[in-house]
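Practice problem 4.
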């Protein structure tokens, strides 16, 4: 009969030696139980995020959800148009302000509109060209009736535009391409509009004379000058003193004044402001 070894706290003693008992997890039944429990374990499934609902409690359509979550894309054409309209409004406002700084700013903008310029640094790769709204913007600087001139000298008109003039002493006759303004002795004359001195010359009919360039092929001419206080290339402001009218030894000082647009003479009385025509300020 085989003797059974006594069991002492999970250990058996055989032949004076202690034999360790294998843990239950290494038994065949334990392995099977462990395998079955792993097979019964449910896989992890990420819970579905509930769809947002509208104010009325209904699920939001996918198109609406995507449109709200996706940031709106800017339209470059709309940005160009908006910037152009804003510039046009500012120009219109400044053009109606008679202060010198406003007119100077309008002159700078007028020059800028003739060139293509780049706003990449300020509008993020947005190229803006002056032709975006050409008609609306150019109307502000329209050549002709829209440009405002002031009278160059205080006095009265003695010879109008288009009148036939005969200078018997000089043996010269011509059709008047401007107006002649009778004034006082040593009277100052002034720039009729903002511009730059284009030329100071000796005219065969009007003696010492002065040309101003007002841009856009617009010029003004001042003849029968005495002293001229500006030089060629100098920028002048409207109303700035240019010199004095010549006083002849045998007559009355008369300033000859012309305005040219697109190589054609214009009647200055059609372009000079109404206040000057009525004799206010330096009116004719």
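Answer key:
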């Amino acid at each position: 009969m085989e003797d059974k070894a006594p069991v002492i706290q999970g250990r058996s003693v055989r032949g004076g030696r202690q034999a360790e008992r294998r843990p239950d997890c290494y038994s065949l039944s334990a392995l099977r139980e462990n395998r079955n429990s792993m097979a019964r374990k449910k896989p992890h499934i990420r819970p579905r995020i509930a769809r947002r609902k509208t104010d009325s409690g209904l699920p939001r359509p996918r198109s609406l959800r995507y449109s709200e979550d996706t940031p709106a894309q800017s339209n470059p054409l709309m940005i160009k148009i908006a910037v152009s309209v804003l510039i046009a409004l500012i120009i219109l406002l400044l053009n109606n302000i008679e202060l010198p700084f406003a007119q100077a700013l309008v002159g700078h903008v007028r020059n800028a509109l003739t060139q293509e310029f780049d706003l990449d640094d300020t509008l993020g790769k947005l190229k803006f060209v002056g032709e975006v709204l050409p008609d609306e913007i150019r109307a502000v600087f329209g050549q002709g009736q829209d440009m405002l001139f002031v009278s160059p000298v205080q006095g009265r008109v003695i010879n109008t535009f288009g009148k036939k003039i005969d200078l018997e002493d000089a043996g010269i006759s011509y059709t008047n391409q401007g107006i002649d303004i009778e004034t006082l002795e040593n009277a100052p004359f002034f720039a009729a509009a903002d511009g730059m001195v284009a030329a100071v010359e000796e005219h065969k009919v009007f003696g010492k004379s002065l040309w101003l360039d007002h841009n856009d092929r617009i010029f003004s001419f001042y003849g029968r000058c005495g002293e001229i206080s500006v030089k060629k290339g100098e920028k002048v402001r409207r109303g700035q003193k240019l010199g004095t009218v010549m006083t002849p030894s045998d007559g009355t000082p008369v300033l000859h004044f012309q305005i040219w647009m697109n190589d054609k003479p214009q009647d200055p009385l059609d372009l000079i402001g109404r206040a000057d025509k009525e004799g206010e300020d330096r009116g004719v």
